Amino acid sequence: MKMGCFGFDFSNFQSITVFFLLLMLGLSLSPNGCLGIRSFPEERRFIEAPEYRNGVQCPVTAETQDMVHIAMTLDSEYLRGSMAAVHSVLRHSSCPEHIFFHFIAAEFDPSSPRVLTQLVRSIFPSLDFNVYIFREDTVLNLISSSIRHALENPLNYARNYLGDMLDPSVTRVIYLDSDIVLVDDIEKLWKTPLSGSRIIGAPEYCHANFTKYFTDSFWSDPDLPQVFGSRNPCYFNTGVMVMDLQKWREGNYRKKIEKWMELQRQRRIYELGSLPPFLLVFGGLVEPINHRWNQHGLGGDNVMGSCRSLHPGPVSLLHWSGKGKPWARLDEKRPCPLDYLWEPYDLYKPKPKSRPNYQRSKMRLYQYNNLDFSTSNILFGYSNYFI
């Protein structure tokens, strides 16, 4: 009689049944044929990022209130984008050792929060960060169907709960989406003042047609549009926000957003996922931040293959909001010209051992946008981006 791993008799039907049941529960075979904890090959596809040190002008030590706090979601689907975003933040920071990341991971992500935590640590060994588990059932009964299935992901709503999840000592945070890269020092954004009673700061786009973010049912109601009063609301993208968490908690803004989500379930007053509740609560009450800090919409339309160009003016942050993501288009060998600006921050392998060809990236962008890279501050507002 031949005994297998853990004393299983593989000639016995019951042992075989138990064996395959364990496989279904998430265990896998080790090289010697024994059962072991499931491995995640994705972890081996990322290289370790360079270690970034503070400049001489940085304080020797930093207390919690002196750190730059950044909150991002962390999931297996957008993991590659998140790691590139972190890399870009550290690379352009004057005091990278004084940056603290708060990652929000879904409880039932296919890779599990624990595995994602280990992965971040393997890529950025010296990074200061916490990973918080976001329970999807917190918000599942508040999410209504959207025009895009991706917008229904519960993790899109994690930003509503930062005041609850982060330690009370964290009174200010920058929220960033996973499909961004910075080409400037994050501390400049961190120091943005929020005047008066402002809770959040973000670039506003007042030329956008604000009415399209809500249904005819909303605008035809005699009472609902009055929520804006004399606020003169403008569209803003929630993928880049400076947030005063102390005022957020004091004003219980999580509950204010949830009330609009509850009404949406009853009456269908908007079509787009997590953005409209923010517009309803904060539209017209946002601290305006320079547009250079959210050059959004670079994802374009992935189905039609359309590519977007930069908005006029300098750039500190590029944002691939929209259906198309740079890593997917690069892998599929059909990138948009601006996707080459994301590529140098990509830590996912396999990749060629040689350094990224920045000259090639500059030439392709020049051909597409007819831009003068001899004065890079026209495009980037950051003189040594290509170094």
From TrEMBL:
Localization per Swiss-Prot or TrEMBL: Membrane
Predominant location: membrane
Record membrane topology: Single-pass type II membrane protein
SUPFAM superfamilies in UniProt: Nucleotide-diphospho-sugar transferases
Domain of life assignment: Eukaryota
PANTHER family for the chain: GLYCOSYLTRANSFERASE 8 DOMAIN-CONTAINING PROTEIN, HEXOSYLTRANSFERASE
Protein name: Hexosyltransferase
